[in-house]
Design goal:
single chain, 451 residues, seven-stranded mixed β-sheet, 17 strands
């Protein structure tokens, strides 16, 4: 480095008597560069927030009709015990600004001192079951993490830019209560720029539609837990009076009739396929899943899930419609020491690191089916060149690493107010808002802009 600087100074033709002065100048320059390098290196480290302020307890509020009719935990969670197994990596990639390839679904959760862009007080679209802070969750450390892909930076979701891109557009989230959880996260983030106006809800408040007047942007969630036609005989508390009848060759018209109106659609299956059900093809009983005592052929949930996804993706790829479709992968739960129906809990307060947890057998099977059927459909879309963009939103692995982000007992309002040792049913499937599910929207934004 000294040699280089001497060469750069040669053109000045310094006089021989000034050599001592030049050497002094060079020493000062080199010392300055060393100090600068030392301090710039130290500034590259982010301090970890050891403690965060816990929001103060709010006053008890009466539940709205929407909250009274919201889906019970039994509606969302299956009667099934998962087994831990190893799972492979993810090869799905999206582009980075420098045109390099980066797998945004592989990485780790890192401390984020900035925290979420909204709170349970600033957002008015959080259902009571996911409003963990209002319900009395005492810790808030789970809010201060963000998803960091291994080989690139994942920008934060930019609500202003998103709304500008979506001017005069429409989105549809199609699936079960996790899809509704996801759309509420998106609504909360977008509310920092513009509040949405709810323009429709069904009788059970499961399917909804919102409008952003300033951008003429419409956002919908359609509750269809099987995606195919299903006769479900459950009350609002999830109590069944008869087995579910699942028609594996007929799509649910609740979403197919609206599908063409969406410029963007996020479609997802889920844990409902683990429930007891009788399967039909051509209006004829084919068999059943988990129906002991019935003289029917026992079929695994994998069969029904694969048939349903094939039907969904065939419909998507064959329909005369241009636009974006995201197939979101399955969401793992984090029940420990039991299941939702047998006292299972989720008490962890920090994320897992890669290698500290294995994917459960059920989630591995469902994700494998999703990857296989997506790959087939993606090839068909490319071959047909219909102007359809089909993307895989693979949230399974990054979600697996967040056992700390669920409501747990704080699905209920102040569950331990009267008895600190009360036995309370836990929710270790859905996500607190704010919470880890907000990062799903970072992924969506990245896939839209650079994918």
């Amino acid at each position: 480095m000294v040699q280089k600087m001497k060469l750069e100074m040669n053109p000045f033709s310094l006089h021989k008597n000034n050599h001592t002065f030049v050497k002094c100048v060079l020493c000062f320059v080199l010392m300055g560069l060393a100090v600068r390098l030392l301090f710039s290196g130290s500034l590259g480290f982010s301090s970890v927030v050891d403690s965060v302020e816990t929001p103060s307890e709010e006053k008890t509020e009466h539940l709205s009709p929407e909250e009274q009719k919201s889906e019970s935990l039994e509606d969302s969670l299956p009667f099934q015990t998962p087994v831990s197994v190893y799972f492979p990596g993810n090869d799905n990639q999206t582009s980075k600004n420098d045109s390099a390839k980066c797998d945004i679904f592989t990485g780790e959760w890192i401390p984020d001192p900035l925290g979420p862009v909204y709170t349970n007080e600033s957002c008015h679209n959080i259902e009571s079951h996911q409003n963990c802070m209002r319900n009395g969750r005492p810790d808030s450390g789970f809010l201060y993490w963000r998803w960091n892909p291994s080989d690139c930076e994942l920008p934060r979701f930019n609500p202003a830019r998103f709304l500008d891109l979506m001017r005069n557009k429409s989105w549809g989230f199609i699936g079960d209560s996790i899809s509704r959880n996801h759309v509420q996260s998106l609504l909360c983030i977008l509310s920092q720029v513009e509040e949405a106006v709810e323009v429709y809800h069904d009788e059970e408040y499961r399917s909804k539609r919102w409008h952003f007047p300033s951008h003429n942007f419409t956002l919908s969630v359609i509750w269809t837990p099987f995606l195919v036609k299903a006769d479900v005989f459950e009350d609002i508390n999830g109590v069944s009076s008869s087995d579910i009848l699942l028609h594996l060759d007929k799509l649910d018209e609740k979403w197919t009739q609206q599908y063409k109106s969406f410029d963007y659609a996020v479609i997802a299956g889920g844990k409902w396929f683990l429930k007891t059900a009788i399967y039909y093809l051509n209006d004829t009983v084919l068999g059943c899943h988990y129906c002991p005592g019935k003289n029917l052929t026992e079929l695994e949930f994998e069969y029904a899930y694969r048939k349903s996804l094939q039907l969904v993706l065939n419909f998507v790829s064959r329909t005369d419609r241009k636009g974006f479709v995201f197939l979101r992968t399955t969401t793992p739960d984090h029940f420990e020491n039991g299941e939702w129906f047998s006292g299972g809990t989720c008490k962890r307060m920090v994320p897992f690191k890669e290698g500290e947890i294995d994917m459960g057998d059920v989630d591995r099977i469902m994700r494998d089916v999703e990857l296989e059927e997506f790959e087939k459909a993606a090839k068909d879309v490319v071959t047909e060149e219909r102007g359809l963009v089909l993307k895989l939103l693979d949230t399974t692995r990054l979600s697996l690493l967040r056992p700390d982000g669920h409501p747990g007992p704080y699905r209920h309002f102040q569950p331990f107010a009267e008895d600190r040792n009360a036995t309370v049913q836990n929710d270790c499937l859905h996500w607190c808002l704010p919470g880890p599910i907000d990062s799903w929207n970072d992924l969506v934004m990245e896939m839209l802009v650079n994918g």
